[in-house]
Amino acid sequence: MLSTALRASLFVSLVAAAACGGSAPPPATTPAAPTDSSAAAASAAPTSTAAPADTSAAAAPGAWSKTTLSKEQQAAYMKTKVMPAMSPVFKGHDATKYADFGCKTCHGHPFQDPHDFLPHLTFSGGALTQFKDKPEISKWMHEQVEPGMATAMGQQPYDMKTNTGFGCKGCHTVDMK
């Protein structure tokens, strides 16, 4: 179980993602190639010691889909696409806090949907309150975590003009006040 301090740190870290919207369905076409920064982050990722149950292309498709992937495919997708891309983003931000970056970082223990485990974000007065309350973490989440997760999930980052793409709501519950 995560300590209160670690949960608080995780909350602060994930608050920045709240500036973004919800997750959109995966694109009908093959996702765009990762940006130079996300490709560099993915290539710099340490190899995981836990081997995925199934790493075939069928088990880890190009884009995430909670509705069409089996639990085994979802786990394989996370292990082969999300973990290698996001581990360096989190460890690069705080190597000590995220030294054990893994499934529990976003899903907790026992395993939960990130919306149930991660801190809820608050939207009030036309903005996420976390940007005012925790500006450094919010900036990191907005500039690094959100686009990294969008790419890892095979989606475009959230676009405020069209209200489409992968954003804060992809992982967090956003409470409207």
Total strand count, please?
3
**Count of distinct structural domains:** 1
Radius of gyration: 15 Å
H/E series: HHHHHEEHHE
Structural class: mainly alpha
With strands numbered from the N-terminus, the spatial order across the biggest sheet is 2-1-3
Which parts are unreliable, with pLDDT below 50 for 5 consecutive residues or more? 1-59
Please tell me what the overall shape is: globular
Terminal Cα separation, in Å?
Answer: 30 Å
Number of helices: 7
Residue-averaged pLDDT = 76
What does the largest sheet look like?
A: 3 strands, mixed
Report strand %: 5-15%
Give the helix level as a range of percent. Answer: 40-55%
Name the features.
mainly alpha, 3 strands, single chain, disordered N terminus, globular, three-stranded mixed β-sheet, 5% strand, 177 residues
Architecture blueprint of SSEs:
Elements: H1 4-15, H2 36-43, H3 71-93, H4 103-107, H5 114-117, E1 121-124, E2 127-128, H6 129-133, H7 135-152, E3 174-176
Parallel strand pairs: 1-3
Antiparallel strand pairs: 1-2
Helix pairs in contact: 1-7, 2-3, 3-7
Task: Walk me through the structure.
The structure is a single chain. The protein has a 3-stranded mixed sheet. The chain has helices at 4-15, 36-43, 71-93, 103-107, 114-117, 129-133, 135-152; strands at 121-124, 127-128, 174-176. Strand 1 and strand 2 (127-128) form a beta hairpin. The protein is mainly α. It has one domain (4-176). The protein has 7 helices and 3 strands; from the N terminus they run H-H-H-H-H-E-E-H-H-E.
